[in-house]
User: Fold this.
Amino acid sequence: MNFKLRTDRLFLRLVQDCDAEPAFDILHSHPDITRFMTFNPPKKVDDTLQFFRESRLHCPEKGVVWALFLEEKFIGLVSLESITRMLGVWKMDRAELGYWLDPSFHGQGIMTEAASEVMRFGFEHLNLHKIICGHVSENIASQKVIEKLGFRFLSERKEHFFRFGQWWNHKNYEIIKDEFESS
Assistant:
């Protein structure tokens, strides 16, 4: 399966070892990127490299992580994670969309463009039925991306997790293949 994706402005491919250093540099220089994520900024390049290697081991059965490039410059990641085909006897065929972008490129529609292409790939080539997504309620920038992508709001989980000395709410969204194709 070819995981290389192109849009008008962007190129995406599976993460490679050579992406670990630029990813580390961005996350280390902008630790706020991980503020609302489930991980802290990596402490060394090897942490990022190990994550990339593990993600490739489970690709595409459990997830796919793409490196995102603008004019050959690495600027972030987009992923389809937690791919679930079956849950007991239930057929699921779903994944969770994840992403982060170098703050120097915020506000240009880049993540919406990249994530839309990843979603198209998920529905067309990974045969997903549903993609879910979420964000910390205070992360309005991520909410805007999710809404532009056509996700349907489901719920807000109150005090969903504890971090930085406080409880945070989390908003949940989903989109099914038919909704994506008709948008």
